[in-house]
Amino acid sequence: MATVPGVPLIQRRPGVTSQTLEYMWSPPLSDGGSPITSYTLTDGTLTFTLDPETRIYVVNGLTNGVAYSFRLAANNAIGQGTFAFFRTVQPGNKPDPPTSVSISSLVSINSGSYRVSWTNPSNTGGTTGLLGNVVKFYPVTSAGDVLSNSPSTIRKSVFGAAPGQPLTTFVNLSTTYNWKGQVFAVNDPGYSLSNFGLTSTTNHLYASGLQTDVYSGYFGDVPTWFATATKTFSTSVTNFTNIGTATNSNKLPNAQDNYSVQWTGFFLPPATGSYTFYTSSDDGSFVWIGPSAVSGFTTANAIVNNGGLHGMQERSGTSTLTSNVYYPIRIQFGEQGGGDDLNFSIAGPSLTRRYELSTLVFYLPG
Fold this sequence. Notes:
Layout: E1 9-10, E2 15-17, E3 20-26, E4 36-42, E5 47-50, E6 56-59, E7 71-76, E8 84-85, E9 99-108, E10 111-119, E11 132-140, E12 154-159, E13 166-174, E14 178-187, E15 190-191, E16 195-198, E17 207-208, E18 210-216, E19 230-237, E20 259-267, E21 273-282, E22 285-289, E23 304-306, E24 313-321, E25 327-335, E26 341-348, E27 351-354, E28 361-363
Antiparallel strand pairs: 1-3, 2-3, 3-6, 4-5, 4-7, 7-8, 9-10, 10-13, 11-12, 11-14, 14-15, 14-16, 17-28, 18-19, 18-20, 20-25, 20-28, 21-24, 21-26, 22-23, 22-25, 26-27
């Protein structure tokens, strides 16, 4: 006894151009014992009845930036089969390429850690946003030519990208090669053109410690305050037992009021696993780890939020990290009045809680 046809087989994601979507499919594995007489392609508003031989259909006259969710069913003399659902997409043009692409070496020993930064385009090609970015690296000669007999291309996807937004990601690359990096913006119509950057096999070894900058005034739990504040002293430190050791004695516990300190650099986990970061402070302090320590850092995304005016109190936060990856870290502390002190410590896999961090934190001199 004949039945309705099976589900059509979607062959690929819809092809997307300005005001146009292209759909491609194959017949169902079963026609239900009765020949397919037509296909129905619809999004609930637009409906097209197509010949049974049709395998590709282009829908024209659509509105750029509007999301369309088309589905397809096969029909025979018995009736209509189950719909297959195509991916929801927006017609439009490809976005402009990212700008201000830079690739900078963090640490290169046996494998190199690189920071890749860019700004997403404001022109998204008529779609309402971006799906994200794709970063690709190719091994190249010193002249920048891609090696013909090279290892596989390194590819990394970055999601949650907003038009016009500056972004940063991190990659580890073998220092056997020079690398050419590309950054693409991606929307439903596809990849933008790319902008390039070049890495180098030159070793740039960071020094032990965190960059330490002391400022006049209290930051008031405003992480961006430091960008325009008056800096009074700079050094580097590895010992965070108290505010004295953490500033090379520029500040001392319970001795001064109305100042703030920011420490920046990288944390190198010795093993993969969960790490706990602690601050005890009087007054407020915050810690960020990973990309949020570089840009977009707020009190809401701090891994340790010990903010506010208060006496000495401890707060902590945890993060799962991978061994031998250099994670950006940022610590902020401020003292308004009364007692003042800070200590910072880390504990993790096979790492008892410690305040002296000379083998764990690094910064780039100069």
